[in-house]
Amino acid sequence: MNPVTYVAPLDVSGALSHLYAGVDANAAPSKVIAGGTNLLDLMKERVMGPQQLVDINALPLDQITAAPDGGLRLGAIARNADTAYHPLVRAQYPVLTAAILAGASPQIRNMASNGGNLLQRTRCHYFYDATTPCNKRAPGTGCSAIGGLTRQHAILGASAQCIATHPSDMCVALAALDAVVCVRSSAGERRIDFADFHRLPGEQPERDTVLAAGDLITHIDLPPAAQFVRHSAYLKFRDRASYAFALVSVAAMLDVGEDGKVRDARIALGSVAHKPWRVPAAEAVLIGRQVDETAFAEAADVLLAGAQGQGQNDFKVTMARRAVIRALTQAVEGTHDNTTELTENEAPV
Ligand SMILES: Cc1cc2nc3c(=O)[nH]c(=O)nc-3n(C[C@H](O)[C@H](O)[C@H](O)COP(=O)(O)OP(=O)(O)OC[C@H]3O[C@@H](n4cnc5c(N)ncnc54)[C@H](O)[C@@H]3O)c2cc1C
Ligand code: SF4
């Protein structure tokens, strides 16, 4: 049995005093616990073994507040359900509501925090099976997925060390929205653009993000996005209709002028890489174009340039292309893939 100490500080500086500085946030001896829906599973499977848990649930970071610039600030320990159903999120960022509600189950969304969602770890089977080689769990041991079970794995941005994907739905919408992650450490505060927050695996697959040990996510800032409210969609393809991680997901946002031409566009793909996948050149393809399938297909081809399956997941390349075209079409129609409906277990704010 591994002994674990537990502290529950009441303010941010108290929490920081229990987190030790270091290079790799995942290897830190002292770990933040928020909803615990991922970390506790990893501890039970002996994938992660922190010596101390710093419970941040009493910190004053659970609010969702309007920002002076017209954007929104999401507290790191605001629950995923409270975020999805918040009136300002629903009204101003419907793609975020749709993405969160496409994930997990009502019970998990009631518990899961916004900060924890960003830092949830891959769902690669081998990562969770501590008896198998895995460079992400145990650097230098090898990658069991290469040549193994790859249905959920990457088609973009993989390395010879790791072909895992980031499984979050929420993060795909946050990438499309150009969110900013606000972080505190003993060295002070910093703001990290969402595009720079998650890493590709490269030679260091054990590092999921640019966070270091001792970093605490305090907020996620959403810039104003009123121009996209009428035309956005989140589309998720998965093996079951609910309670399943994505095989491919897409957050699509369009700003369409009176003349039917695209003024601005955002497209982010989920579950295809180690991070939400955005390519500015793919979005540029759509600018000034009429909204039609030809333009959407061209954008999809640029977004997926270089995509390559690992064998069992070759189908994801075609699936992703079709998903991008369909999500953009749904965005034009102003519809959302709300396959996960509001349930009685998940009370709106
Ligand atoms: C059965 C199941 C199905 C799921 N399906 C989906 C799905 O379809 N789509 C989806 O997107 N997600 C899904 N999830 C994942 C779920 O969304 C995450 O587990 C959840 O968002 C993690 O949040 P948490 O607060 O519970 O994090 P925790 O488990 O408490 O923490 C996760 C990690 O984040 C760190 N951490 C947490 N908060 C902070 C902070 N503020 N600062 C620094 N570090 C922090 C912890 O140290 C830990 O490393 C599923 C989970 C389960 C168990
Ligand atoms: S894909 Fe990454 S997480 Fe999965 S076994 Fe390989 S190294 Fe580990």
Structure, briefly:
By secondary structure, this protein is of the alpha+beta class.
Structural summary, described in words:
The protein has 349 residues and is α+β, with helices and mostly antiparallel strands. The protein has a domain at 1-59: Uridine Diphospho-n-acetylenolpyruvylglucosamine Reductase, domain 2, CATH 3.30.43.10. It is built from 13 helices and eleven strands. The strands form three sheets. Strands 4-5-8-6-7 form a five-stranded antiparallel beta sheet. Strands 1-3-2 form a three-stranded parallel beta sheet, with no helix packed on it. α12 packs across α13. Iron/sulfur cluster (SF4) is lined by residues 122, 124, 126-127, 134-136, 143-145, 162-164, 205. Residues 1-227 form the FAD-binding PCMH-type domain. It is an enzyme of class 1 (oxidoreductase). Its EC number is 1.3.7.9.
Shape: globular
Radius of gyration: 20 Å
Query: Which regions contain 5 or more consecutive residues with pLDDT less than 50?
Result: 338-349
CATH homologous superfamily of the domain at 1-59 - what is it?
A: Uridine Diphospho-n-acetylenolpyruvylglucosamine Reductase, domain 2
Q: Roughly what is the average pLDDT, rounded to an integer? A: 94
In the CATH hierarchy, what is the class of the domain at 1-59?
Alpha Beta
The span between the termini is 41 Å
The total beta strand count reads 11
**CATH fold call of the domain at 1-59:** Uridine Diphospho-n-acetylenolpyruvylglucosamine Reductase, domain 2
EC number: 1.3.7.9
InterPro entries: CO_DH_flav_C (IPR005107), CO_DH_flav_C_dom_sf (IPR036683), Diverse_Substr_Oxidored (IPR051312), FAD-bd_PCMH (IPR016166), FAD-bd_PCMH-like_sf (IPR036318), FAD-bd_PCMH_sub1 (IPR016167), FAD-bd_PCMH_sub2 (IPR016169), Mopterin_DH_FAD-bd (IPR002346)
Domain FAD-binding PCMH-type: 1-227
Keywords: FAD, Flavoprotein, Oxidoreductase
